[in-house]
Amino acid sequence: MFKRFPRFRFAALSLALLGWGLLSPAALAAPRATGTAPPAGQGAARSRAWRLSALLEYGRVYAQLQQRFNGERPVEELQSLITLSSARSGLAPNARLSDSVPYWDLDPARAQGMVQLVGDPRRNPFVTPEGKVRVRVHYMNQEDRARLEKILGAPAGFEPATMLSSYRTLLVETSRGPEILKFSGKGVLTTTNDAYGAKILTAEQVQRAVAAAKQTRRYGAFVNEPAGLVLTLGDGQDPIVMLARRVPVAKRGYRKGDVVLPEHVLSDPEFATTELGQAIFARHGSQARWFRKELAPAVADLLLRSLTRSFLHAEVHPQNLDVIVDRHGRVVEVQLKDLQDLQNDLVARAAARRKPLAWTGWTITSEVTDRGFADYYSDYFGQLGNVPDASTGKDKPNATNPFSAIVMRQLLQRARSLPALQRLADTLEYQAAFAPRSWRQPMAIFALLRRMLIDSGALRRKTAHPPPAKDGAPGALAGAP
Fold this sequence. Notes:
Elements: H1 13-19, H2 25-29, H3 44-68, H4 78-81, H5 86-89, E1 98-106, H6 108-111, E2 115-119, E3 133-136, H7 142-152, E4 157-163, E5 169-174, E6 177-183, H8 203-216, E7 227-231, E8 240-245, E9 259-262, H9 263-266, H10 275-281, H11 287-310, E10 312-313, E11 321-325, E12 331-336, E13 343-345, H12 346-351, E14 362-364, H13 370-380, H14 402-416, H15 419-422, H16 428-433, H17 442-456
Parallel strand pairs: 13-14
Antiparallel strand pairs: 1-3, 1-4, 2-7, 4-5, 5-6, 6-8, 7-8, 9-11, 10-13, 11-12
Helix pairs in contact: 1-10, 10-11, 11-14, 13-17, 14-17
């Protein structure tokens, strides 16, 4: 799976980014996104400009990496798919990696009755600083653009946008910084090659995602999806729907040299041959060792906290797991996205005697068996770090995935230190979970740990919570059904 390369003395991750042409000097010189004092002699306006420039470059790198690398499915690497016919790629004709998104700014009076804003209007990227409602459409969706132009007239303007690995999701460069916008796949995906048709984004999905984002802020480690927009044109057709997602930034704020990469970029052997890949992996001498020493502990913390604190489970697959790495090649945080698919474990939450969440999304009830829980994680978490078959591009079986086993081994080491679980040391379940080679069956052991925590009453004790993560590893987390 992984290419090895000799350890070398590297100046800083930021230099590698410069060498690879993905990060400008302005971005490296920028202050933290959280707002450090500007350099001497420079005013607040100059500082804001530097901050905006840094975050735009940070977002561009994130987008460009997703287009170039797809470790788990190299035959679906976006930059190559664009060159194929629609019948082979599943993308609509004339697909483009980047273009400009048209937008229309509506006065509140005109928007009334047409637009439903979902989320806090004070933090809504669909509301301009002047108080107008900004409506956008994916640059490949010519049908809905024609509908908008017929009713609203010509666009008020355009914003640069770059396609991300999910095709219908774009990184849009706004005047206030980069925003990720998720649209329906209409006009982007064909219905012939895609198992989910055009992947229509519905108003219900947007409402579920925004509601979940509000509930998950207390736990951290989720990419915020603060707002959505539903536009009904009254022409007898489906509404135009969009969801806003923040660009993942560390809770401590952006620092020069930070880079965010989806797991499917980090696991690509070709990425390891780039200057950026070598700069990141040099910290531990190889891609494989970096996964074991840097990424596995962060993912283990994330999963353990989903069992003991948040009781939320996400689809932890390579596209949904974003990894923030600092200039020294260290994992600062891992964050999960796609909140509309989050699942709230009602059984574990009740066992912990926690106050129920105001939850409108999916739930895990007592009807979900341990086998069903394990199979779910196998389907998603089991994809992380997978070794694709060179001839077909297909993944190896998830149940024997080596990276998931490495993560489970680290998770068990953390769980063993919990006093609440140590009280169960004489039980058969404990002995099975912590047997010498139990981590080689990671999904079954993960389900067993959940069952032990629920049945033993351990979740009611403060000691059930794992100790704080070290070196900026994620605090609280999620997972899915």
